[in-house]
Amino acid sequence: MFTGIVEELGEVTAVEHLGDASRFRLRGPVVTDGAKHGDSIAVNGVCLTVVDHEGDEFTADVMAETLHRSSLGALTAGSRVNLERPTAVGARLGGHIVQGHVDGTGEILAREPSEHWEIVTVSLPADLARYVVEKGSITVDGISLTVVEAGADRFTVSLIPTTLALTTLGRKQPGDPVNLEVDIVAKYVERLLATGPGAGR
Predict the structure, then answer these.
(1) Membrane-spanning residues where (predicted)?
(2) How far, in Å, CA of 161 to CA of 109, rounded?
(3) Measured at the alpha carbon of residue 9, what is the angle toward residues 68 and 142, in degrees to the nearest 5?
């Protein structure tokens, strides 16, 4: 489990295409500290498994399903990525509960800079709109954010200077894709309401 608090802005150093999968090599001195084979690291909000680790770089295999459902397929050598290790038991939950299981992708539609922050508008797939509410939580490229406004096909978030400086959202422009993970609590509530008490017994 992750919290959506990005630990560092890493970099893709190589991508090897393997037909129905890809192998990524990524650089991240913070997240690779103490990393070992089988550990999980979130890359732009996608939970990946460390295959190999050497120095400040690690490799991870990305299957076709993940490439199809997320924006990882658009990454190339030199791409910057948000990196986060799983939260430790007993640690502070600084963001919200993030699984690293991307629900779909959106697109940066607009950026409105202010003196101290920036409002970013992101497109929202129709099948995810019911899970996104004003002042609720959403994960964008692995970043835990609060929804400012929620519409039928888009939502807005307000980015503070720290987020702009230390994550990919400080660099992405209109037209760029982003990974979206909605609040898991909303999906559980929907499931419980749909099935009703005692269903499945």
Answers:
(1) none
(2) 20
(3) 45
